[in-house]
Design brief:
This protein is of the alpha+beta class. 64% of the residues lie in helices and 15% in strands. It folds into 2 domains: 22-60 and 119-287 and 327-440, Up-down Bundle (Outer membrane efflux proteins (OEP)); 61-91 and 98-118 and 290-326, Outer membrane efflux proteins (OEP).
Length: 446
Amino acid sequence: MKLYSLILSLLFFSNILFSQQLNLTLDDCIELALKNNENLKNSILEENISKAVSKEYLAIGLPQIYVDGGLQYNYEVQKSLIDIGRFMPGVPEGTEQEVQFGQTYEGRFDFNIDQMIFNGSYFVGLSATKELEKLSNKLTQRTEIDIYESVSKAYYTVLNTKSRIELVNSNLERLLTLLEESKQLYDNGFIEKLDIDRITVSYNNLQSEKIKTDRLYDLSLFVLKFQIGIPLNQEIKLIGNLNEDILENFDFDLSKFDYNKRIEYSILKTDRNLKSYDLKNNRSQYLPQIYVNYNYGLNTSASSYDLFFDSYRWKNFGTVGLKLVVPIFDGFLKRSKINQSKYKIEQIDNQLSFLERSIDLQINQSVVDYSNSKESLEITSKNLDLALSIYNASEKKYKEGVGSNLEVLNANAGLKQAQNNYYNAVYEVIISKINLEKTLGTLYNN
């Protein structure tokens, strides 16, 4: 019963903790995404794998020390036939005698040290493993940049949808106020029922739009939760509003652009370096290889296991050796590999050239998109002021009895459209800003 009560208590408190609402800024969302994203976790693990591979390759050039030994029981000792007439005077040639080589019990113990002195391929490989670590790190950076982009866009999409909900609610309030005032005028005989019906139709249409907008808001929240790696049923509230203040202090200078700021370009350059090391490795195969080794050991043999363990029967032996390997001819295998490496480097050079031209085009497109969205924002901002002025004037005329409710409805529809256009313009300029920063390679620097 105590265990059961403990489990219930833990579940209760975990539910309370889980049900707490999270108040998140953009930085909070990005921090959660960087912490929870599975692709980023795997990319970091790949970095660790690259470091482990580098250490593994380094170990090849260090002294290799090992011991080797064993005991052997020859239950059937090998025998051979030899012509003893060649060794024993007076014995006719061709006289064969069975001879046993070895004894029933054998033992051996070796201590060995092998050391590589020179191998050109090894030293090239050491440098290549360091470059592989750099490549893994840059791939992680690319994943972080993609996360920053996707989370930022999802975050501002939620804010944009939230602003649309606020607009719908404010429009519903205005229409509801207008509908109530119109009903009073109708009851006093100042307007016709047709005027009431017009406002009611607009009000009902706006309620339908609110339902769709609420659903779109929930969907955008789900997308954001997925991007930052939290459960979809976790309650969150975003801190911030969609307005022009987000664009403050944003500036860019195309004259300072460097292709290496683009992570894709930097990754391709690192890949080229790896291909260059592969070329050096193939060329190094023409160089000689030098190894030294040291060996010391003990061995013995005996016909009886009682004698086998007598220390005086174990005899010492040892060797010191130098091994030189000089390649002479391999059927042009190395030359073929060298040509392959050269062609691969040329391929990457072509890819770099194409990527540079693609980046130039992307920058021009991003700058144009950002400029156009900025101009659209300025225009929609002015239109919003005009639409608000028109609505206030129409409402004033209607209340004074010199205007129609149709004029007020049209002015309200124009105001509603201007408000939507304004917030959509703010959203579009923010998205174009993110795209421009990514194109320039300045979107995210950890």
